[in-house]
Amino acid sequence: MPRFSRFPLCALATGLCFGTHLHSARAQARISLGPRVGVNVASAKFNYSGTVPYTFTTESVTRLETGVVANINYRHFSWQPALLYAQKGFVLTGTKKPSIVGSSRPARAELTRRLNYLTLPVNVAYTQKASGEGWQVFGGGYVGLLLGGKRTVHNQYEYATGTYFYDSEQPIRPGAEAVEADAFYAQRWDAGLQAGVGYRCGAALLQVTYSAGLTNADVLSALQEPQSYYNRTVQAAFAYLLPVGKQVPKQRINN
User: Domain named Outer membrane protein beta-barrel: which ranges (predicted)?
Assistant: First the structure.
């Protein structure tokens, strides 16, 4: 056989082998899709570099998460993309030391940020069983689009005539910079890493996840001291996964 004709035949044979393997892999993949609902225990890593002598502490807020998740399982590995409405935020308490009576700055300020995101998390899981059931560990990342939020303030002032309180509430708007001086903004996009553990039994999937934002979510306005914060969330979620398309019988999958 002429040498120039061997390469096309070898390439064709290689392509047929690869196509057969790919078809076999697709045939063994188990795809499922379903609703997901969970609870977010959300907080933030807060950094302050202002000139006013405040001492800050952060506390978590409990919020909701809901959406849809897919599970594409091949042997002991699963690819898990999701589309979620995720509520995040935190409580920030600042105490001024020393407290100056009559100062225009509050002696104690409590600020609650509630942020609502449309998030796209993608995880890769290693499962105990090749069917995708049993215990699993997973990791991945997420991208979030801020839909809006709310900022609630509870300030305490110390004067010679007594202690006074001031409460206010403003919306948080998505944006890369503060357009209006008296408005409050947060970055439109958030992104980070996440990891966790889970357990699947039949269609039921329970997961616990820790996610850490890598982008500064704050946008400074003229009313704020220099600061930054990064979203931190512990999530406990339940999903009910329904099969999509033709599934491989479990007895054909090696454990």
Answer: 27-217
Q: Which tokens go with 241?
A: 């996964």
Cβ atoms of 154 and 211 closer than 8 Å: no
Per-residue pLDDT reduced to its tens digit, 87-117 = 999 999 988 766 555 556 677 788 899 999 9
Domain that holds residue 61: 30-252
Domain with residue 129: its CATH number is: 2.40.160.20
Structure tokens at 97: 């030391």
With tokens 């215990």, the residue in question is 135
Whether 144 is in a domain gets the answer: yes
In a domain, 2, yes or no: no
Q: How far apart are the first and last CA of the chain?
A: 46
The helix (run of H) or strand (run of E) holding residue 16 is: helix 6-28
Number of compact structural domains in the chain: 1
Residue 225 belongs to a domain:
yes
What is the distance between the alpha carbons of residues 227 and 220, in angstroms, rounded to a whole number? 8
Residue 25, H or E segment: helix 6-28
For 125, counting Cβ atoms within 10 Å of its Cβ (0-12 exposed, 13-18 middle, 19+ buried), the class is buried
- Domain-embedded: residue 18: no
